[in-house]
Amino acid sequence: MIEFTRRKRVENTLNIAPLIDIVFLLLIFFLLTSTFMHTGIELTLPEAQTAEVQDVEEHVISLTGEGELYLDLEPVSWEDLPERLQQSLANSPEKVVVINADRGVPLGFFVRAMDISRQAGALEVTISTRPPGDDTR
User: Domains of the chain, with CATH numbers?
Assistant: First the structure.
């Protein structure tokens, strides 16, 4: 009788080395592109002739034209603002508050933010403006 030799069964395996390379490249791409995104609040600051840059630790209250209120880029309500600002100022040696208000914000909201800043313990309250002709936001 004829003897047949059995062939060894070939196991199919998936080589994941190229897949790891692709995932790594995608990870690098997303990390690099995410750093170019501008994080912040869209405001159109008013112009001022005497605008200057300050280099101190500051807490920023932002008032948008849509009526939104932010403390250090985090949304906050008018009711929570005094307590949150007081907690932030307690850890700050300079106790400086900067108010970023959009051009369309009613004056009453601006004054209210200044009053809350003073009551929370701010030693200095400044207004954020932009130099004339500067179209950056």
Answer: 58-127 (3.30.420.270)
If you average pLDDT over each of 3-7, 25-29, 34-38, which comes out highest?
25-29
Residues in the chain: 137
- Judge residue 112's burial from the number of C-beta atoms within 10 Å of its C-beta, 0-12 exposed, 13-18 middle, 19 or more buried: middle
Distance CA 36, CA 119 (A): 38
Helix and strand numbers, DSSP H then E, in the chain: 3, 5
Three-class DSSP category at 64: coil
Pair type for strands 58-63 and 74-75: unpaired
- Whole-angstrom distance, CA of residue 83 vs CA of residue 85: 5
Tell me what the mean pLDDT of segment 59-75 comes to.
Answer: 88
Angle between helices 81-90 and 107-119 (to 10 degrees): 50
DSSP 65-79: TTS-EEETTEE--TT
What does pTM read for this prediction?
Answer: 0.57
The two structure tokens encoding residue 86: 């007081």
- Mean per-residue pLDDT over the chain, rounded: 80
